[in-house]
Structure formats: C-alpha cells, structure tokens
Design a protein that fits this description.
Blueprint (H helix, E strand, L loop, with lengths): L1 H38 L10 H26 L21 H4 L1 H23 L5 H17 L10 H9 L3 H16 L21 E6 L3 E6 L6 E2 L3 E4 L17 H7 L4 E6 L11 H20 L4 E6 L1 H15 L5 E7 L17 H10 L5 E2 L1 H10 L2 H14 L8 H7 L4 E2 H13 L10 E2 L2 E2 L9 E6 L7 H5 L9 E6 L17 E4 L7 H6 L2 E4 L2 H9 L6 E2 L13 E2 L11
Parallel strand pairs: 4-5, 4-6, 6-7, 7-12, 12-13
Antiparallel strand pairs: 1-2, 1-17, 2-5, 3-16, 8-9, 10-11, 13-14, 14-15
C-alpha cells in the first residue's frame, strides 16, 4: 500500500511539474518576443487582454487536472474520460511505449496540452499586422516542436527501451551518428552511400552541349521514333539541383518529357564557389535562359521553342522572356510554370523573416560579392517542417542510433547549393520584400524595363494545394499578370510530391477549371477533380504546340559538340 502511495505521490509531482512547464513555456515565448522586438528596435508587444488571459489560464489548469485524473483512472482500469490527441500526421507519440506507462502517457499528453496552450495564447495576443501574427505563430511552433519530450533521452521511453534491449549499443551508435553528422555539418536524412548522381540517380541519357560560368546545357537523347520539331527547354531552380526532376527512371519528369516525343534541353545550374560569388540576377538571366534559348535555336534550327520553369527557375525564365520581349525578341511559343511565384504578395512562411533590416545586413556583407551558404538555405527550408525534417532525425539518428533509410528524394534534399550573394540579395529585396516583378516597368533587368503583361504566349500554370513554399493562391495570381491564354491546374500534395507525381503510379489527383476570371477560391469551388497525375494533362496541352513530327537527331551539332555525358560535372559538385 505504501508503494502505491509513493507512486501516486510521484505521479502527482510529475503532474504539478508539467502544469508549471506549460506556464514556463509561455513565459519563455513572451520573453523571446520582447527580446526580439528590442533587438529589432520595435515597440514592446502589446499587453494581452487580462480577461482573455485569465480565461485561457483557467481552461489550461482545468484541462491539466482533468488529464491527471483521467490517467489515474486508467491505472485503475477505468476508461479515460479525457484524452489529448496529436494533430493529424503527428507520429511522434504513436509507439505503444508512450501509452503503456502512466508517467509517459501523462507526459506526452501534458506536452500536447502545453502546446495547445501556447498556440491559443498567440491567438489572443495583439499583433501589429497580419505578418507579425504569422511570425508569432511560426515562432510558437518552433519552440513547441523543440521542447517535445520525444527529443530528449530522459523523457523518451522508446530511447530507454531500446537502450536496455541492446545493452547500450543504441546509445553508442547514436553518439557515433552524431559525431559523423558533426563532421558533415548537417543532419543525415538518408543513407547517402546508396546513391551516386549519374549512376543510379539522374540517369536519363543525354549530353552536355554547352557550358558557361553559371550553367551547363544538357540535351537529352530521343526515346521515340519521331519528335516534334519544336524543342522544350527546362529551367529548374538554382536553389537545390535539377535532378529532383530526374531521380529514378520510374519517377523522372525529364524522362517522361522525352518519352512524349519532345527534344528536351535542360539548364543545369552550377553550384557557385567563391569565383562565382559576384554573380547577380542579370547574370543568371543572361547566362541562363537567354543564352540557353539561343543555343537551342541554333542546334534545332527553329525560331521558337517551348519553355518550362520550376519554382525560382520559373521566375528566372519568365523574367528572361520579359527582357527578350523588351528587346523585340519572341523566342518562346509556349510557357509552362510549375509552382512558380510572379506575385510575391503572400510567400508563406519563407517570407515571414525577410525584412528590411535582415536584407540590409546581407547586402552589407555579401551584396557586392560572396556566397549565401548552402547550409543556411537548407536549415531555413528544413525548419519550415521541423518535426519531419529535423527532430525526426534527431530522435532516430542520435537517440535510437538508427541508420536513415535510403530515399532518393531525401538524398536530393540534402544536396544543397550555395547562392551568389548579389543574386540572393537582389532576389530577396525585389521579389520577397518589395514585390516589384508584378508591376509593369518597375524593374530594370539586363538594361531594360520589363513588363510580364507583354508575354502573350499560351501558358500552363501548375500549383499544388499543400505547397508551403509557393502558396497555390499566390501562384494563381500569375493568371492576372501574364498576357497570354492561361490554363491553371491545381495538383494535390506539396511543393515536391505534387510536382513529381508519375502517371504510371496513378496517385493523388488534380483540379482543372478553364475559367480563370474568378478569384482563387472561386476557381476551386467549381473546379473539376480528376484522379491521377497532372503530367498527362500537361502532355495533352503541349502536344499541339510541339510542331510537326520528324526523325530525331543526336545531341548537339557541328558547332555545339557534346562536351560530356549527362548529367554533367556541375550537378555533381557538392557544397562544402
């Protein structure tokens, strides 16, 4: 009896501690906001409505007491009357060890309550504007994710069980994993030894037919007995590498393009080193799509090509076409933009921490020359989905001592690129901060004023419904900016999975609606959902624009002889 009493006393102590932890978490968050505001020279955050605060605190304490009583009742064989469930998709506490022990059962539910309390507190706190409120929500989520009991050895029952079962070997393996990642300077997300670019990833056959300081131009070998006379130029993002579009043969968008009878050319951006650290936005336009279009025209002997841009590659491509239009040139017959922003009014969470002070600081350090390191970019993108791309691997690699599984997408995700400082600063200021690209004649690029409304070719716009990098409603705004007839398609899933969705797997779905006069939500309300991949829809759209059929030719010509096999040297250069 005394032993049971001791257990209950210990449990009561744990309950009291976690109630206090919730209050401490909130206080730490408030202190952080105050310090951040002081550092930025902002006014102190407005005071919370006392009545709202009191009501929220009372609700929090009542829920904690209900949870404590519920777990005690469960110990006595009664059905719990009060439970706190994780949000959909949160798998951190799915292992049975979190529920088998009353201490860990209470611990993880109390944490979820604390997290709810923090989020609710943010909602009752005044904010200067909508962006400030979103920034508060983001910071609250980062703090809550970092403080999860699953992240710490002492509060993770899976760690303890595995350590006992392996007689400490899992701890040794975890320490070794941590030391290896310290050497690499990043968290391992996959077994990188399994993959090699050009060997079992990025293997679509072709050749580099041109190169300059910033890019190589790849021409892919034909896979059909006939091809359209009008080739297709692909401009991927210069943030990360192009082979997200050419991972394995069964999920390669590049290979699919070639299989549809297109002569496909692709810009493979260089991973910049110090020698390229002075490159700016205009350099990327001139030495990227503008040069690539000229070379493609000369190799294929056509006046117009089809062009496709992905993410920031689409922004670069569209800007390049606007420059050429201003020069009186019209080299593109159709334009495809995949998850691309032209209107940066709403940039999602990436834009929350791009402000005048931050950009001015970067302009003062790397704006005239230097590199924005790949590590900075990768950390930024990873913390947008911290539980999936950070803490999940902290727990698995370091606490459990597990070796990450081989996954081509995560291999690509870890293969980040640097950016030249002048390019990055210009891009952040003129796009994310000032949103200048959408304004006709506002920006001077390559010595000329640009107006995207002058681009009157047919356009295929793809956005994805759960995109946290390019919100689909923002991508939809391109229908208001470009001058040509637009087909807007909305894919399921996110920024990558929604784009790399092979027809052969028949997964997910997409929405179509020919009427783009309505606003984004109005468009979706009456859009038709179709099962499967958007790839087939795009291929049907592009086919009439690809010209007459003819026999294919080998990559290059007498002037542009193949330099080396695809995927080329540039894409194999890893950031240090």
């Amino acid at each position: 009896m005394a032993q049971g009493s001791n257990n209950n006393d210990a449990f009561a102590g744990s309950a009291a501690q976690f109630m206090q932890n919730g209050q401490n978490m909130m206080q730490q968050f408030m202190d952080y906001l105050g310090k951040a505001g002081a550092t930025a020279g902002a006014l102190p955050p407005p005071a919370v409505d006392p009545q709202a605060l009191t009501a929220l605190q009372k609700q929090f304490m009542d829920q904690q007491m209900s949870l404590w009583q519920s777990v005690l009742n469960k110990q006595q064989g009664q059905e719990p009357a009060f439970k706190v469930a994780p949000e959909p998709g949160d798998r951190r506490f799915s292992a049975p060890e979190w529920k088998d022990s009353p201490i860990y059962d209470y611990l993880h539910q109390a944490y979820l309550l604390n997290t709810q309390y923090l989020k609710q507190m943010v909602e009752v706190m005044p904010a200067e504007d909508a962006k400030s409120k979103e920034r508060m929500r983001f910071l609250a989520r980062q703090m809550a994710d970092a403080m999860a009991p699953s992240n710490f050895a002492a509060t993770n029952p899976e760690f303890i069980k595995l350590a006992l079962e392996t007689k400490g070997q899992s701890i040794t393996d975890g320490i070794n994993n941590l030391l290896k990642d310290f050497e690499k300077g990043r968290i391992s997300m996959t077994d990188e030894s399994v993959f090699e670019v050009g060997k079992n990833i990025a293997t679509t056959e072709g050749a580099v037919v041109f190169e300059n300081e910033l890019m190589q131009l790849i021409q892919y070998a034909p896979l059909t007995p006939k091809v359209g006379t009008r080739p297709l130029l692909v401009v991927p993002p210069c943030i990360n590498k192009f082979y997200i579009m050419d991972l394995q043969p069964d999920n390669s968008l590049i290979r699919f393009m070639v299989e549809q009878g297109n002569t496909v050319f692709l810009v493979s951006w260089r991973n910049p080193k110090e020698a390229q650290g002075d490159a700016g936005w205009d350099d990327y336009l001139e030495q990227g799509p503008i040069t690539a279009l000229r070379v493609v025209q000369e190799i294929t002997k056509v006046k117009q090509v089809n062009a496709l841009g992905f993410c920031v590659g689409g922004t670069i491509l569209t800007s390049s076409l606007a420059v050429l239009k201003a020069r009186g040139e019209d080299p593109v017959a159709s334009l495809t933009l995949l998850t691309t922003l032209l209107d940066f009014s709403d940039t999602g969470e990436i834009g929350l921490f791009i402000d005048e002070k931050g950009i001015a600081a970067r302009e003062a350090t790397i704006g005239k020359g230097g590199l924005l390191p790949a590590r900075d970019l990768q950390n930024t993108f990873s913390f947008l989905r911290a539980n999936d791309l950070v803490w999940n691997y902290v727990t698995g690699n370091y606490l459990k001592g597990e070796k990450p599984k081989a996954f081509d997408l995560l291999y690509w995700n870890s293969d980040s690129t640097n950016l030249p400082g002048p390019f990055a600063c210009w891009y952040m200021r003129n796009m994310y901060l000032e949103n200048n690209l959408r304004v006709p004649g506002k920006l001077d690029m390559c010595g000329t004023k640009v107006d995207l409304g002058q681009l009157d070719m047919p356009v295929y716009l793809l956005a994805t419904r759960e995109d946290h990098i390019v919100p689909w409603q923002s991508a939809y705004q391109s229908t208001r900016i470009l001058g040509g007839k637009v087909r807007f398609v909305l894919g399921a899933s996110g920024h990558i999975a929604g784009v790399i969705n092979p027809v052969s797997k028949n997964k997910r779905s997409y929405w179509v609606n020919d009427d783009v006069k309505k606003d984004a939500e109005g468009w979706l309300t009456v859009a038709e959902e179709r099962k499967g991949s958007w790839w087939a829809d795009w291929a049907d759209w592009l086919k009439p624009l690809s010209g007459e059929q003819r026999a294919p030719r080998k990559p290059g010509n007498a002037k542009y002889k193949p330099i080396e096999p695809a995927p080329g040297r540039y894409v194999k250069e890893r950031a240090v």
